[in-house]
Amino acid sequence: MPSLQALPRSFYDRDPVIVAEELLGMHLVCREESLERIGRIVEVEAYLGPHDKAAHSARGRTRRTEVMFGPPGHAYIYVIYGMHCCLNVVTEKEGNASAILIRALEPIQNLDGRGSGPGLVCRSLHLNRSWNGHDLVSDDLFIAEPDARDAIRIIRRPRIGVDYAGSWAKRLLRFYIAENEWVSRR
Fold first, then answer.
1. Residue 90 CB neighbours (<10 A)
2. Angle at 122 between CA 116 and CA 123, to 5 degrees
3. 130 three-class SS
4. pLDDT averaged over the chain?
5. 44-97 pLDDT per residue, tens
6. pLDDT on residue 33
7. Which residues of 11-25 are buried (b: 16+ CB within 10 A; e: fewer)?
8. DSSP letter at 26?
9. Assigned CATH class of 9-177
10. Left, alpha or beta for 95 (phi > 0: left; psi -120 to 50: alpha)?
11. What sign does the dihedral 80-124-31-90 (CA atoms) show?
12. What is the rounded CA–CA span in Å between residue 92 and residue 99?
């Protein structure tokens, strides 16, 4: 497999819905020492910033959400249920606080276990909170365009687990590759 290169920062400095759709089919790469773990992104959710009642940034700027308010192209990793890490990609210009949750990966190389679900994505890549704020325009944790990309059909659905967000819970901001067996929920 040829060496993969990180997407440029300009890729992330755009509308989160566009970035979310274009992340589908990209490769998420984590390099540690001599091991390279790679998964194909097959499911994501867009969080549009403080006005989006389902976004963590809707509660304002806190120590936890500080990374979301920073520049685009950084990893926002948080813990849910006190035990599972979730990986988000910060989008748009500094201060907008929007992000894309990576919900599922199709295994390409060296993933440990399934990557179907946001907690399993981090577990399969061996990511934890120490990666929070990591620059994704790097050479150890990044997203890359594969050499060849198949045409995909994108399904849009409401996000999962955000019923508390009122009308925002019904917005079609979850995107996944149609008929992909690695998607967390159909």
1. 26
2. 85
3. helix
4. 95
5. 999 999 999 999 999 999 999 999 999 999 999 999 887 899 999 999 999 999
6. 84
7. bbbeebbebbbbbbb
8. P
9. alpha beta
10. left
11. negative
12. 8
CA 113/CA 59 separation, integer angstroms: 33
**Identity of the amino acid at 52:** D
Residues near 60 by beta carbon (within 8 Å), at least 6 away in sequence: 50
pLDDT in the model for residue 185: 82
Q: Which residues contact 68 (CB under 8 A, 6 or more apart)?
A: 55, 56, 57, 76, 88, 90, 97, 98, 99
Which residue is it, tokens 């990511």?
A: 127
- Checking if the pLDDT of 6 tops 80, the result is yes
With CA atoms as reference, report the closest residue to 58 among 20, 91, 96.
Answer: 96
pLDDT in tens, 111-143: 988 899 999 999 999 999 999 999 999 999 999
CB 160 within 8 A of CB 47: no
Q: Which pLDDT does position 2 carry in this prediction?
A: 56
